[in-house]
Design brief:
Oligomer: single chain
CATH architecture of the largest domain: 3-Layer(aba) Sandwich
Shape: globular
Radius of gyration: 23 Å
Distance between the termini: 40 Å
Helix content: 40-55%
CATH superfamily of the largest domain: Nitrogenase molybdenum iron protein domain
Structural class: alpha/beta
Strand content: 5-15%
């Protein structure tokens, strides 16, 4: 990066990331009538089935298991054609994502050519998504899928008359990121309340909605990423549609949402008084819980780039973020990095996990935020560990969802769903777990005596 902040260091660590195939879950929930076919080995199938187990009668994914004969021949078009035909007949999808894997990467199987042939054969969009364990982070799979959608939309627009008059559209905001219907509705509501010209969220809920949003893309479009890992998608949008990309923070937490909306209001010359009022109201609603993390030491071992805005949020509410590591740094997070520099949070790109573990042992944090591939290891060494996948796949965007992130705050020392605890369970910890159960069952308002005991336990640590 040019003009890189002074608080950033780079090491030459290996990747300890969860598999990018994990993107199938959020994408299938976002894009209705979509279907995912993974071309890989049996281990890929086990991972997806365990990580995305569902109770529905029809799951939105299938597996094309590569056998020895397939590996030897290198030609898998015919078996893939039969599988896709079966999927179309049974599930009637509007769009299919053909997911690569470590196997396709090593064997050099061209899933892009395969997708092109299948699209022509069945007249249904088959989007190639090359993912593997050699990706930088687990979020790279989602970025690859969205960038594939950009290619699809652009190819559909070629030779169509629908592009006429696009340049006449004024500046409009298009948010980029795979979010749930609830989060999308909340963001749309917040944008409209502020009077910001809003054209939609890419991708939409269906193929028709995705194509509808893509027709609004032009050189006047203001693209704003919702997640820090959409760099490839942003680059494609800028190259193909000549869009402008707004450099701001990500709407994570009350602080990030305030800067996010203030920058948009400033761009459109709109008053931002309502933005500050909303941020203050959200902060008042979470201030008590935020106090439980004040001065607590947190060490973040990241694997999806979302750890950068999360570190900024934790630091802003008074926690001491000892270090945050991230697989790689891209230009879309430059403003977040500048804020972390002001907060004196140390950032490590491509961290060496062995050196990092020594730093964790020396600094003795109250909580370690780590990927699933490392969480149990830190737990075994006596550290309270919080898996990164919890915040990576949670509803955190915008003012209306800021509370979801702060709900992790009471879990900053001893309790919490998803937390991996050291083995010994004390009476205090049992009390903390009892409080957590109440919160999870919807009993968010605790009694005064419970809160006082809660704070005493934390102070005792």
């Amino acid at each position: 990066m040019t003009n890189q902040p002074s608080n950033i260091a780079r090491e030459n660590g290996c990747y300890f990331s969860w598999c990018p195939l994990s993107c199938i879950g959020p994408l299938s929930r976002r894009i209705k009538n979509s279907y995912f076919i993974n071309v890989g080995m049996r281990e890929c199938a086990y991972f997806i089935q365990m990580g995305l187990s569902r109770r529905e009668s029809k799951t939105p994914f299938s597996f094309a298991i590569l056998e020895d004969s397939d590996i030897g021949s290198g030609n898998i078009f015919e078996p893939m054609r039969k599988l896709v035909e079966k999927v179309i007949n049974e599930n009637k999808p509007e769009i299919i994502f053909l997911m690569g894997s470590c196997s396709t990467e090593i064997m050099k199987l061209d899933i892009f050519e395969l997708s092109y042939k299948l699209t022509g054969e069945f007249n249904i969009p088959v989007i190639p998504v090359q993912t593997s364990g050699m990706c930088y982070s687990q979020s790279d799979g989602e970025d690859a899928a969205l960038s594939g959608l950009v290619d699809f939309c652009f190819s559909q627009a070629q030779g169509c008359d629908s592009g006429e008059g696009k340049e006449d559209r004024g500046e409009e905001v298009i948010l980029v990121g795979s979010v749930s219907e609830h989060a999308a509705a909340a963001l749309k509501n917040e944008m409209e309340k502020l009077g910001i010209p809003f054209a939609g969220i890419f991708p939409g809920n269906s193929v028709s909605e995705i194509l509808g949003i893509s027709k609004k893309l032009n050189k006047n479009s203001i693209i704003v990423p919702l997640q820090p890992y959409s760099f490839r998608t942003l680059r494609k949008l800028r190259q193909k549609y000549k869009c402008k990309i707004l450099n701001t923070t990500f709407p994570v937490g009350h602080d990030g949402s305030r800067i996010f909306y203030s920058d948009l209001c400033r761009h459109f010359r709109l008053p931002d008084d309502a933005v500050f009022d909303a941020a203050n109201n959200v902060w008042k609603s979470m201030e008590v819980k935020a106090g439980l993390l004040k001065n607590k030491k947190i060490f973040i071992v990241g694997d999806g780039l979302f750890e950068i805005p999360v570190a900024r949020f934790f630091s802003n509410i008074g926690a001491e973020v000892l270090e945050v590591s991230t697989p790689h740094i891209n230009p879309s997070i430059s403003k977040e990095l500048t804020l972390l520099e002001k907060q004196e949070v140390f950032v490590v790109e491509s961290a060496d996990i062995f050196l990092q573990f020594k730093r964790i042992q020396d600094k003795k944090p109250d909580m370690v935020v780590a990927p699933l591939s490392l969480a149990r290891a830190f737990q075994a060494h006596g550290f309270l560990t919080f898996p990164t996948v919890i915040y990576l796949r949670s509803e955190l965007l915008g003012f209306s969802n800021a509370k979801h992130l702060i709900e992790f705050a009471p879990h900053g020392t001893e309790i919490g769903v998803g937390l991996f605890h050291p083995k010994d369970v004390s009476e205090e910890r049992m009390f903390m777990r009892k409080i957590t159960k109440k919160v999870n069952e919807g009993m968010v308002k605790l009694g005064r005596d419970e809160i006082e005991k809660y704070i005493k336990v934390l102070e005792g640590k």
